[in-house]
Amino acid sequence: MVRIANAVRPRLARAATAARPRVARLARAVRSTRAHLPGSRTVRTVRTWQFTAGAATAGLALAAGVVTVAGPWDANGQRTAERDRAVALERSGGADHGAGTAAGAPRPAPSAPPVLTGLGAAGTTVTTKEAPPGPDALASVLGPLLGAPALSGGHAAVVVDVATGKRLYGVDADRPSTPASTTKLATATAALSALGPDHRFTTRAALEPDTGELVLVGGGDPTLTAHRDAQGWASLRTLAADTAKALRERGIHQVTLSYDTTLFTGPALHPIGVNVNLAPVTALAADEGRTDDSTHGPVTRVTDPAADATRAFAAFLNDAGVKTSSPGPSKATTRAETLATVSSPPLSALVERMLTNSDNDIAETLARQTALATGEPGSFDGGARAIAAQLKKLGLPLAGASFHDGSGLNRDDKVTADLLTAVLVKAADPAHPELRPILTGLPIAGFTGTMAGRETDSAAGLVRAKTGTLTGVNTLAGTVVDADGRLLAFAFLASHTTNADAAQSALDTTVTALTACGCETLR
Questions:
Q1: Which residues, in sequence order, are CB contacts of 332 under 8 Å at separation 6+?
Q2: Which of 164, 249, 280, 463 is deepest in the core (most CB within 10 A)?
Q3: Predicted confidence (pLDDT) per residue in 4-24, tens digit
């Protein structure tokens, strides 16, 4: 308080000095007016009005002087005097924690309560309430909504408090169900745990020393692009330009061109067959084999993504002054000299893109990369085994789970609602920061990815969820902030649905209701 008084006293003095001439001028004006007014009664009335006005004006003048002397707003929006007071009270940000305020002194404005789980420390609570919603209360809210006719074919549901890991609600939590694209949560978890969030995939151009053959070697980068604007992804154009430069430096202006896709093994075509949702899975592809300029969503794909990418590479080489033969498949030897490389963004960015857009091509490539990192072959079967093995290593509940791909397009995939929520809780665990891209990659209701057109009412921005849709299957799994600021993880899996739009709407309604739940309202 002494510091505050010492800081403010000279400013008040300067303010009073600055205001004194204005008060004097006001007094002279009042006396002059009085001299010209007839009659004592009128004079008294006008004097009352004049002195009232004078007092108000003097007060305003004094206030203006104080405000002026107090100085401008600081860069962070605080006045200097307020900042000094905060320093004197040894507080930051004006938060009132109930100590250090003298009796009768103004109290600082309270800070907003925390609304999300602290990611930096275990056991951090997410609300000022003492207890999470009770299971009976949640059941009374969610039960009727999940019992909607659109979901009458059967459903499994789980809600978990992320801060504590406690299950707050569960219906058939351990029943294996077809997860559709929520399978990608498991794929992301396995890939991040096996490879790490900073891992990158590299595509390279290698020159065989004996034959002079130039080999484009696929490194399993699902985001390699031939677009002029690479937007931060690995650019096939850049690779061609760097390769041409290296060839010219060696006096080479014509090469036999081939491509190597041997990193991956097994069938390239998914069991669902040719499909607009997924290209043949190969270690070398540009723009996911898309036949237009799209970056996500269903579209017709080329039948041989590796050959198509290499033809584009050849065209870029030709533009740079290097002629090539028609490309064909080959395998780079260990003696081949790498001339140039391009690498993907870190795996964390690929996981976020996969989850936000429900990208099947990225998912299947990540399943194979996880397999290779754990000693399995880079195939559909190898990827499926690797995913299950990584989840087991993390201690996640795998009872009843069965994986057959990384994207969830295979209807034989089975997971439980319990497993999906456990994945989300694990991703929020401070002990596993490598899994955080799973949460940050979830589409935001009403704003991004596959949730941009969903939950656009009161739940917009409060729900982040991975969607899943197959014929007769509708799923949703993610996180939600409830009415008390508590972060909850949920998984809803509906089977044997007959109307996809109605089932989706029913799930959205259920999640919206979850955002309105809270500790007090559910007791």
A1: 206, 208, 215, 217, 260
A2: 463
A3: 444 445 444 544 454 455 445
